[in-house]
From TrEMBL:
Segment forming the signal sequence: none
Name assigned to this protein: Beta-lactamase family protein
Pfam families, A to Z: Beta-lactamase (PF00144), DUF7586 (PF24491)
Domain Beta-lactamase-related, chain residue ranges per copy: 15-318
Residue ranges occupied by any DUF7586 domain in the UniProt entry: 345-421
Length: 442
C-alpha cells in the first residue's frame, strides 16, 4: 500500500508547516517516499506550482551523485578504492591519499578550496585553484574531516577517467538512467530564487549563483522533489542498474564508527549515516549553498525516505526529514513479510552454542543464506557472515567484518580465535593449550 492515511498526511503537513513558519523559510517543499514512490508531498510559502517540479539547489547532496560516478569506475575495474589519488589524478598535494579516504572524508584534505569562498564567487579550474601543501590539513586516515575540496578532486578524477566533463558524466551515467531528468548543474525551467532572511527582521536578501567549475562536484546540482525522491528510491535499493545493490550497501557502511553502539553519526562513501534516538539507522545527506538548504534521508529497514527543499541560507530545521520519517514509522509502520522456513546453508550440527574461552556464543542461520555469530545470553562480539566460494565464510559487519570464518569439525576458527563446543575443549586446537588439570575447584 502506497497511499498514506489522511491522519498521517495531516501529521506530516503539520510538521512541515511548523518548520516553514518557525524557520522563516521563504518556500519549503517536503515529501515522503514509500515503495520507491513519492507518496506524499506538500509546499509552504511562496512556491510555484506544480511544487514537485520546481528546482532547488541541493548543495552537498551532489556529493552522493559524485560518489556514485566514482563507484561505477571501481565496479568496472578502472580503479580501486585503495588506489592513491596520484595514480588517476597526478599533481595534487593529496596524491598520497586514497580514493576511499576522499570518499569517506578521511583524507585530511582542507574543508574548502583556497581563495575566495567558492560557494559565493565564480569558480575556476583545478589548475586555477593553485593547490598547495597548505590544503592538506591532517594526516591520512587519522580522523573524519569534512572536505568539499576532496569531492572537487573526485569530480576531476571522474572527468579525466571518462574523457568528458563531470557534469556530462553524471548526467549520462547517473541522473539520466535514474530518471532524474530535472536535475541539472545550473537552474533550468521552474527554479526557486535563493534568499537569505535577515536575522532580526522579516526581510530578504538575494543570494548569488555561479558555476563552481572545479568545485561543482561538491555542491553544484539543482533538483526537484520528484528527482530527489528517485534518489531516495536508489538508496533504498531500486538502483536502476546504475550500481549493484551490493555496492549501494557498501556506500552505507559507516567509516570509523562502531555502529553497534546505541548512538552515533558517521559517513560512508558519499553518504551520511546516523542512528536516531529511536534506534533507526538513516542514510542520506544534507545540503547547503547560499540561498538553499536541502535534506534527503532514507530508512532502509522501513523502506521509506523523506526529503526537504528550501530556498533560504539558514533557518530550516535540520531534523525535519528525520522527523517526517519518525512520524511515518509511528503512524504507519512497515508490515514485515511473514516468516517462512528455508534450508540451512550449513549442516544443522554446526549451528548452536559455541564458546570463546568461557564466553558463550551462538551460531545461527539467518535469512538470505547468511550466518550470524553473537553472544548467547550476554553481550558479545557480533557479526553476520556470507559464504565464500572456497567454503569459508566472510564477515559482513561488526568486529569480524572482512575476517574469514572456517567451520572445522571440532572448532570454529575466526581471526586467530578458536570457538569450541565446551569451554576450553581439550580436543580442540585452543591457542596456548589447555591445562591438564582441566576445570577444578581451588
Amino acid at each position: 500500500m502506497t497511499e498514506l492515511l489522511p491522519a498521517t498526511a495531516r501529521t506530516l503537513l503539520a510538521r512541515t508547516a511548523r518548520a516553514q513558519r518557525d524557520g522563516r523559510v521563504p518556500s519549503l517543499v517536503a515529501g515522503v517516499v514509500r515503495d520507491d514512490e513519492l507518496v506524499w508531498s506538500a509546499a509552504r510559502g511562496e512556491v510555484c506550482e506544480p511544487h514537485r517540479d520546481v528546482q532547488y539547489r541541493i548543495g552537498s547532496i551532489t556529493k552522493t551523485i559524485t560518489a556514485i560516478a566514482v563507484l561505477r569506475l571501481r565496479d568496472e575495474g578502472l580503479l580501486d578504492l585503495d588506489d592513491m589519488l596520484d595514480k588517476h589524478l597526478p599533481g595534487t598535494p593529496l596524491g598520497d591519499r586514497t580514493i576511499g579516504q576522499l570518499l569517506a572524508h578521511l583524507a585530511g584534505a582542507g574543508a574548502e578550496s583556497p581563495g575566495q569562498w567558492w560557494e559565493r564567487t565564480p569558480g575556476t579550474t583545478l589548475a586555477g585553484l593553485e593547490l598547495s601543501r597548505s590544503d592538506v590539513v591532517l594526516p591520512a586516515a587519522r580522523r573524519f574531516h569534512y572536505s568539499n575540496l576532496g569531492f572537487g578532486l573526485l569530480g576531476e578524477l571522474v572527468a579525466r577517467a571518462r574523457g568528458r566533463s563531470w557534469g556530462a558524466v553524471v548526467t549520462e551515467e547517473v541522473l539520466g538512467p535514474l530518471g532524474m531528468h530535472r536535475t541539472t548543474t545550473r537552474p533550468s525551467g521552474a527554479a526557486a530564487q535563493g534568499f537569505a532572511v535577515h536575522p532580526w527582521a522579516d526581510v530578504l536578501h538575494v543570494e548569488p549563483e555561479h558555476d563552481a567549475v572545479a568545485m561543482a562536484p561538491a555542491g553544484q546540482l539543482w533538483a526537484t522533489a520528484d528527482d530527489l525522491a528517485r534518489l531516495a528510491a536508489f538508496l533504498l535499493g531500486d538502483t536502476g542498474e546504475v550500481l549493484s545493490p551490493a555496492t549501494v550497501e557498501e556506500m552505507t557502511v559507516p567509516a570509523g564508527i562502531d555502529s553497534a553502539q546505541p548512538g552515533w553519526v558517521s559517513y560512508g562513501l558519499g553518504v551520511q549515516v546516523q542512528r536516531t534516538d529511536q534506534g533507526s539507522v538513516l542514510v542520506g545527506h544534507g545540503g547547503s549553498m547560499p540561498g538553499f538548504l536541502a535534506l534527503l534521508w532514507v530508512d532502509r529497514e522501513e523502506g521509506t525516505g523523506a526529503l526537504a527543499l528550501a530556498n533560504t541560507t539558514s533557518g530550516l530545521d535540520g531534523g525535519l526529514a528525520a522527523g517526517l520519517l519518525a512520524d511515518l514509522r509511528a503512524a504507519e509502520p512497515r508490515v514485515v513479510d511473514a516468516w517462512a522456513p528455508s534450508a540451512s546453508p550449513v549442516p544443522l550440527e554446526v549451528l548452536g552454542p559455541w564458546f570463546w574461552g568461557p564466553s558463550p556464543y551462538v551460531l545461527r542461520a539467518i535469512p538470505g543464506g547468511l550466518l550470524h555469530l553473537g553472544g548467547l545470553g550476554r553481550p558479545g562480539r557480533s557479526s553476520r557472515f556470507r559464504p565464500a566460494p572456497d567454503g569459508t565464510w566472510i564477515g559482513l559487519d561488526g568486529y569480524f567484518a572482512g575476517e574469514t570464518l572456517r567451520l572445522d569439525p571440532v572448532a570454529l576458527n575466526l581471526a586467530t580465535f578458536v570457538f569450541t563446543r565446551i569451554p576450553y575443549d581439550p580436543a580442540a586446537p585452543v591457542p596456548g593449550g589447555v591445562d591438564d588439570a582441566g576445570w577444578h575447584a581451588p
